[in-house]
Design goal:
With about 350 residues, the protein is of the alpha/beta class. Helices cover about 45% and strands about 15% of the residues. It has helices at about 1-10, 15-25, 30, 40-45, 50-60, 90-100, 100-105, 110-115, 120-125, 130-135, 135-155, 180-185, 205-210, 245-260, 280-300, 305-315; strands at about 35-40, 65-70, 75, 170-175, 190-195, 220, 235-240, 265-275, 305, 315-325, 330-339. The strands form two sheets. Strands 4, 5, 6, 7, 8, 9, 10 and 11 form an eight-stranded mixed sheet that branches. Strand 8 (about 265-275), helix 15 and strand 9 form a beta-alpha-beta unit. Helix 11 (about 135-155) packs parallel to helix 12 (about 180-185).
Protein backbone atom coordinates (compact mmCIF):
# COMPACT_ATOMS: atom_id res chain seq x y z
CA UNK A 1 0.00 0.00 0.00
CA UNK A 2 2.83 2.43 0.84
CA UNK A 3 4.35 1.90 -2.61
CA UNK A 4 1.03 2.61 -4.32
CA UNK A 5 0.55 5.70 -2.15
CA UNK A 6 3.96 7.00 -3.18
CA UNK A 7 3.17 6.64 -6.89
CA UNK A 8 -0.25 8.25 -6.45
CA UNK A 9 1.23 11.18 -4.52
CA UNK A 10 3.86 11.77 -7.18
CA UNK A 11 1.31 11.52 -9.98
CA UNK A 12 -0.75 14.23 -8.25
CA UNK A 13 2.34 16.42 -7.84
CA UNK A 14 1.56 18.78 -10.70
CA UNK A 15 -1.94 19.26 -9.28
CA UNK A 16 -0.48 20.23 -5.91
CA UNK A 17 1.74 22.78 -7.67
CA UNK A 18 -1.24 24.31 -9.45
CA UNK A 19 -3.12 24.44 -6.15
CA UNK A 20 -0.23 26.51 -4.81
CA UNK A 21 -0.39 28.75 -7.87
CA UNK A 22 -4.12 29.34 -7.42
CA UNK A 23 -3.63 30.14 -3.74
CA UNK A 24 -1.05 32.81 -4.60
CA UNK A 25 -3.11 34.30 -7.44
CA UNK A 26 -6.23 34.46 -5.25
CA UNK A 27 -4.29 35.92 -2.27
CA UNK A 28 -5.53 33.13 -0.02
CA UNK A 29 -2.80 33.36 2.63
CA UNK A 30 -3.25 37.08 3.21
CA UNK A 31 -7.07 36.85 3.13
CA UNK A 32 -7.21 33.94 5.57
CA UNK A 33 -4.53 35.17 7.99
CA UNK A 34 -3.60 33.84 11.43
CA UNK A 35 -7.06 34.09 12.97
CA UNK A 36 -9.66 31.44 12.00
CA UNK A 37 -11.83 32.76 9.21
CA UNK A 38 -14.81 31.36 7.36
CA UNK A 39 -14.56 30.19 3.79
CA UNK A 40 -17.52 32.36 2.73
CA UNK A 41 -15.82 35.51 3.98
CA UNK A 42 -12.60 34.59 2.21
CA UNK A 43 -14.53 33.92 -0.99
CA UNK A 44 -16.29 37.29 -0.76
CA UNK A 45 -12.97 39.15 -0.40
CA UNK A 46 -11.35 37.13 -3.19
CA UNK A 47 -14.34 37.51 -5.54
CA UNK A 48 -14.80 33.76 -5.98
CA UNK A 49 -17.66 31.27 -5.82
CA UNK A 50 -18.02 30.32 -2.11
CA UNK A 51 -18.27 26.54 -2.42
CA UNK A 52 -15.32 26.41 -4.83
CA UNK A 53 -13.25 28.52 -2.44
CA UNK A 54 -14.14 26.18 0.44
CA UNK A 55 -12.90 23.25 -1.64
CA UNK A 56 -9.64 25.07 -2.41
CA UNK A 57 -9.14 25.89 1.28
CA UNK A 58 -9.67 22.25 2.25
CA UNK A 59 -7.14 21.15 -0.34
CA UNK A 60 -4.63 23.65 1.05
CA UNK A 61 -5.34 22.31 4.55
CA UNK A 62 -4.67 18.81 3.24
CA UNK A 63 -1.33 20.05 1.92
CA UNK A 64 -0.43 21.49 5.33
CA UNK A 65 -0.69 25.14 4.30
CA UNK A 66 -3.90 25.92 6.18
CA UNK A 67 -5.46 24.54 9.36
CA UNK A 68 -9.20 23.84 9.51
CA UNK A 69 -10.55 24.64 12.98
CA UNK A 70 -14.13 23.61 12.27
CA UNK A 71 -16.43 23.29 9.27
CA UNK A 72 -15.21 25.86 6.73
CA UNK A 73 -13.09 27.82 9.25
CA UNK A 74 -9.40 28.18 8.44
CA UNK A 75 -6.13 29.86 9.41
CA UNK A 76 -2.70 29.75 7.81
CA UNK A 77 0.07 27.48 9.06
CA UNK A 78 3.68 28.64 9.34
CA UNK A 79 4.34 27.21 5.89
CA UNK A 80 1.18 28.70 4.43
CA UNK A 81 2.14 32.15 5.69
CA UNK A 82 5.05 32.10 3.22
CA UNK A 83 2.45 32.43 0.44
CA UNK A 84 1.58 35.95 1.60
CA UNK A 85 3.55 38.65 -0.25
CA UNK A 86 3.94 40.72 2.92
CA UNK A 87 5.72 37.95 4.84
CA UNK A 88 9.43 38.75 5.38
CA UNK A 89 10.32 35.29 3.99
CA UNK A 90 7.63 35.28 1.31
CA UNK A 91 7.92 32.79 -1.55
CA UNK A 92 5.07 34.14 -3.67
CA UNK A 93 7.23 35.06 -6.67
CA UNK A 94 9.09 31.77 -6.36
CA UNK A 95 5.78 29.87 -6.54
CA UNK A 96 4.53 32.00 -9.43
CA UNK A 97 7.72 31.42 -11.41
CA UNK A 98 8.04 27.68 -10.88
CA UNK A 99 4.38 27.08 -11.68
CA UNK A 100 4.52 29.44 -14.67
CA UNK A 101 3.44 27.89 -17.99
CA UNK A 102 6.75 29.01 -19.54
CA UNK A 103 8.50 26.67 -17.09
CA UNK A 104 5.97 23.85 -17.09
CA UNK A 105 5.35 23.49 -20.82
CA UNK A 106 8.85 22.28 -21.59
CA UNK A 107 8.53 19.65 -18.83
CA UNK A 108 5.84 18.00 -20.95
CA UNK A 109 8.73 17.06 -23.25
CA UNK A 110 11.05 15.64 -20.59
CA UNK A 111 11.08 12.25 -22.33
CA UNK A 112 12.22 13.94 -25.55
CA UNK A 113 15.06 15.69 -23.68
CA UNK A 114 16.10 12.39 -22.12
CA UNK A 115 16.14 10.73 -25.54
CA UNK A 116 18.11 13.49 -27.23
CA UNK A 117 19.96 15.23 -24.41
CA UNK A 118 18.70 18.50 -25.89
CA UNK A 119 16.87 21.39 -24.24
CA UNK A 120 13.10 21.13 -24.74
CA UNK A 121 12.43 24.81 -23.97
CA UNK A 122 14.19 26.02 -27.12
CA UNK A 123 12.07 23.76 -29.31
CA UNK A 124 8.79 24.66 -27.61
CA UNK A 125 9.34 28.44 -27.57
CA UNK A 126 11.68 28.92 -30.50
CA UNK A 127 14.36 30.59 -28.38
CA UNK A 128 16.40 29.94 -25.25
CA UNK A 129 15.07 30.60 -21.75
CA UNK A 130 16.93 33.83 -21.00
CA UNK A 131 16.16 35.29 -24.43
CA UNK A 132 12.51 34.50 -23.76
CA UNK A 133 12.73 36.39 -20.48
CA UNK A 134 14.28 39.37 -22.26
CA UNK A 135 11.33 39.42 -24.66
CA UNK A 136 8.79 39.37 -21.82
CA UNK A 137 9.62 42.09 -19.25
CA UNK A 138 6.87 41.11 -16.78
CA UNK A 139 8.08 37.51 -16.74
CA UNK A 140 11.66 38.72 -16.38
CA UNK A 141 10.67 40.83 -13.36
CA UNK A 142 8.91 37.81 -11.83
CA UNK A 143 12.02 35.68 -12.42
CA UNK A 144 14.23 38.28 -10.72
CA UNK A 145 11.85 38.44 -7.75
CA UNK A 146 11.76 34.64 -7.54
CA UNK A 147 15.55 34.43 -7.53
CA UNK A 148 15.71 37.10 -4.81
CA UNK A 149 13.29 35.11 -2.65
CA UNK A 150 15.15 31.88 -3.35
CA UNK A 151 18.50 33.33 -2.27
CA UNK A 152 17.23 34.99 0.93
CA UNK A 153 17.92 31.95 3.13
CA UNK A 154 21.48 31.66 1.84
CA UNK A 155 22.00 35.41 2.25
CA UNK A 156 21.17 35.03 5.94
CA UNK A 157 23.53 32.08 6.48
CA UNK A 158 26.49 32.54 4.14
CA UNK A 159 28.03 35.66 5.76
CA UNK A 160 28.69 33.65 8.94
CA UNK A 161 29.65 30.36 7.31
CA UNK A 162 32.73 31.58 5.46
CA UNK A 163 35.70 33.74 6.47
CA UNK A 164 35.04 36.83 4.36
CA UNK A 165 37.34 38.82 6.64
CA UNK A 166 40.40 37.57 4.71
CA UNK A 167 39.31 39.51 1.61
CA UNK A 168 38.94 43.15 0.68
CA UNK A 169 36.51 43.04 -2.24
CA UNK A 170 33.99 40.50 -3.53
CA UNK A 171 32.39 40.36 -6.97
CA UNK A 172 29.09 38.49 -7.12
CA UNK A 173 29.09 36.96 -10.61
CA UNK A 174 25.51 36.77 -11.88
CA UNK A 175 24.39 38.38 -8.62
CA UNK A 176 20.94 39.50 -9.78
CA UNK A 177 19.31 42.10 -7.56
CA UNK A 178 22.19 41.99 -5.05
CA UNK A 179 20.34 40.24 -2.22
CA UNK A 180 23.15 37.77 -1.54
CA UNK A 181 25.95 40.32 -1.66
CA UNK A 182 23.95 42.72 0.52
CA UNK A 183 23.84 40.03 3.18
CA UNK A 184 27.60 39.53 2.97
CA UNK A 185 28.49 43.23 2.99
CA UNK A 186 26.06 43.95 5.81
CA UNK A 187 27.83 41.44 8.04
CA UNK A 188 31.36 42.48 6.98
CA UNK A 189 31.74 46.29 6.99
CA UNK A 190 35.37 46.06 5.84
CA UNK A 191 34.36 44.58 2.48
CA UNK A 192 33.48 46.38 -0.72
CA UNK A 193 31.55 44.68 -3.49
CA UNK A 194 30.52 44.47 -7.13
CA UNK A 195 27.39 42.88 -8.57
CA UNK A 196 27.84 41.66 -12.14
CA UNK A 197 24.79 40.73 -14.20
CA UNK A 198 22.94 41.64 -17.36
CA UNK A 199 20.93 44.86 -17.43
CA UNK A 200 17.70 42.92 -16.98
CA UNK A 201 19.25 40.88 -14.15
CA UNK A 202 20.31 44.07 -12.33
CA UNK A 203 16.87 45.66 -12.68
CA UNK A 204 16.18 45.70 -8.93
CA UNK A 205 19.77 45.87 -7.65
CA UNK A 206 19.96 49.61 -7.05
CA UNK A 207 16.84 49.42 -4.85
CA UNK A 208 18.40 46.55 -2.88
CA UNK A 209 21.60 48.49 -2.23
CA UNK A 210 19.65 51.58 -1.19
CA UNK A 211 17.46 49.53 1.15
CA UNK A 212 20.52 48.17 2.96
CA UNK A 213 22.50 51.41 2.85
CA UNK A 214 25.23 49.92 0.66
CA UNK A 215 25.36 52.27 -2.32
CA UNK A 216 28.73 53.64 -1.18
CA UNK A 217 30.33 50.20 -0.80
CA UNK A 218 28.98 48.32 -3.77
CA UNK A 219 28.90 49.03 -7.49
CA UNK A 220 26.75 47.51 -10.21
CA UNK A 221 28.30 46.33 -13.47
CA UNK A 222 26.07 45.44 -16.41
CA UNK A 223 27.90 42.86 -18.46
CA UNK A 224 28.13 39.34 -19.81
CA UNK A 225 30.16 36.80 -17.85
CA UNK A 226 30.65 34.85 -21.08
CA UNK A 227 32.74 37.80 -22.32
CA UNK A 228 34.53 38.98 -19.20
CA UNK A 229 34.43 39.46 -15.44
CA UNK A 230 35.48 42.79 -13.88
CA UNK A 231 38.90 42.79 -12.26
CA UNK A 232 39.70 44.32 -8.89
CA UNK A 233 38.32 41.81 -6.39
CA UNK A 234 40.17 39.10 -4.50
CA UNK A 235 37.02 37.00 -4.04
CA UNK A 236 34.65 35.97 -6.83
CA UNK A 237 31.33 34.62 -5.59
CA UNK A 238 29.12 32.53 -7.90
CA UNK A 239 25.82 31.24 -6.52
CA UNK A 240 23.24 29.19 -8.45
CA UNK A 241 24.69 30.29 -11.78
CA UNK A 242 26.87 27.43 -13.01
CA UNK A 243 24.06 24.87 -12.91
CA UNK A 244 22.26 26.90 -15.60
CA UNK A 245 24.95 26.15 -18.16
CA UNK A 246 26.75 23.34 -19.99
CA UNK A 247 30.25 22.28 -18.95
CA UNK A 248 31.87 24.24 -21.79
CA UNK A 249 29.97 27.39 -20.82
CA UNK A 250 30.87 26.90 -17.15
CA UNK A 251 34.54 26.62 -18.11
CA UNK A 252 34.23 29.94 -19.95
CA UNK A 253 32.75 31.66 -16.88
CA UNK A 254 35.38 30.21 -14.55
CA UNK A 255 38.20 31.01 -16.98
CA UNK A 256 37.18 34.66 -16.94
CA UNK A 257 37.27 34.58 -13.13
CA UNK A 258 40.71 32.92 -13.22
CA UNK A 259 42.03 35.59 -15.60
CA UNK A 260 41.33 38.39 -13.11
CA UNK A 261 42.09 36.44 -9.91
CA UNK A 262 44.98 38.07 -8.00
CA UNK A 263 47.56 36.11 -5.99
CA UNK A 264 45.81 34.73 -2.93
CA UNK A 265 42.41 35.22 -4.54
CA UNK A 266 39.57 32.72 -4.38
CA UNK A 267 36.55 31.66 -6.39
CA UNK A 268 33.68 30.69 -4.09
CA UNK A 269 30.94 28.65 -5.77
CA UNK A 270 27.67 28.09 -3.89
CA UNK A 271 25.62 25.25 -5.38
CA UNK A 272 24.31 21.81 -4.46
CA UNK A 273 26.85 19.02 -4.86
CA UNK A 274 25.47 15.67 -5.91
CA UNK A 275 26.63 12.70 -3.81
CA UNK A 276 28.18 9.64 -5.37
CA UNK A 277 24.87 7.81 -4.99
CA UNK A 278 21.34 9.07 -4.37
CA UNK A 279 20.41 9.92 -0.79
CA UNK A 280 16.60 9.86 -0.84
CA UNK A 281 15.87 12.88 1.35
CA UNK A 282 13.55 15.81 0.73
CA UNK A 283 16.52 18.05 -0.13
CA UNK A 284 17.87 15.42 -2.51
CA UNK A 285 14.48 15.18 -4.21
CA UNK A 286 14.53 18.90 -4.98
CA UNK A 287 18.12 18.76 -6.21
CA UNK A 288 17.46 15.94 -8.65
CA UNK A 289 14.29 17.62 -9.92
CA UNK A 290 16.33 20.80 -10.34
CA UNK A 291 18.82 18.77 -12.37
CA UNK A 292 16.02 17.69 -14.71
CA UNK A 293 14.75 21.27 -14.85
CA UNK A 294 18.18 22.32 -16.09
CA UNK A 295 18.03 19.61 -18.74
CA UNK A 296 14.56 20.58 -19.94
CA UNK A 297 14.63 24.36 -19.69
CA UNK A 298 18.23 25.60 -19.72
CA UNK A 299 20.76 23.00 -20.84
CA UNK A 300 22.72 23.03 -17.60
CA UNK A 301 23.03 20.44 -14.85
CA UNK A 302 23.62 19.85 -11.16
CA UNK A 303 27.13 18.50 -10.53
CA UNK A 304 29.08 16.19 -8.26
CA UNK A 305 32.39 17.06 -6.57
CA UNK A 306 34.21 15.29 -9.41
CA UNK A 307 32.24 17.33 -11.97
CA UNK A 308 33.17 20.60 -10.26
CA UNK A 309 36.81 19.53 -10.02
CA UNK A 310 36.83 18.81 -13.74
CA UNK A 311 35.40 22.15 -14.89
CA UNK A 312 37.64 24.00 -12.44
CA UNK A 313 40.71 22.19 -13.74
CA UNK A 314 39.80 23.04 -17.33
CA UNK A 315 39.55 26.71 -16.29
CA UNK A 316 42.97 26.74 -14.61
CA UNK A 317 41.58 26.42 -11.10
CA UNK A 318 42.10 23.78 -8.42
CA UNK A 319 39.21 22.68 -6.25
CA UNK A 320 40.38 23.37 -2.70
CA UNK A 321 37.43 22.18 -0.62
CA UNK A 322 33.71 21.37 -0.59
CA UNK A 323 31.79 22.16 2.61
CA UNK A 324 28.05 21.72 3.19
CA UNK A 325 26.38 25.05 3.96
CA UNK A 326 24.65 24.32 7.26
CA UNK A 327 21.11 25.71 7.59
CA UNK A 328 20.91 26.27 3.83
CA UNK A 329 20.82 22.72 2.50
CA UNK A 330 21.37 21.41 -0.09
CA UNK A 331 23.94 24.12 -0.87
CA UNK A 332 27.69 23.66 -0.43
CA UNK A 333 30.65 26.03 -0.39
CA UNK A 334 33.03 25.06 -3.19
CA UNK A 335 36.38 26.83 -2.91
CA UNK A 336 38.67 27.05 -5.95
CA UNK A 337 42.08 28.69 -6.25
CA UNK A 338 44.51 29.32 -9.08
CA UNK A 339 46.04 26.03 -10.24
Amino acid sequence: MADRDLIARLAFGSMAAQTLRAAVRLRVAELVGDTPRGAAAVAADAGTEPQAMARLLRALAGLGLLKEHGPDSFSVTAAGALLAPGHPESLTSFVRMFTEPAIIRAWEHLDDSVRSGEVAFDTVFGTDFFSHLAQHPELSAEFNAAMSQAVAETAAVLPYAFDFGKFSSVTDVGGGDGTLLAGVLGAHPGLSGVVLDTEQGLAGASRTLERYGLTGRCSLVAGDFFRSVPEGSDLYLIKSVLHDWSDDQVVTILTHCRQVLPPGGLVLIVEPVLPESVDATADAEITYLSDLNMLVNLGGRERSRADFAKVCRRAGLALKSVTPLAEAEPFCLIEAVAD
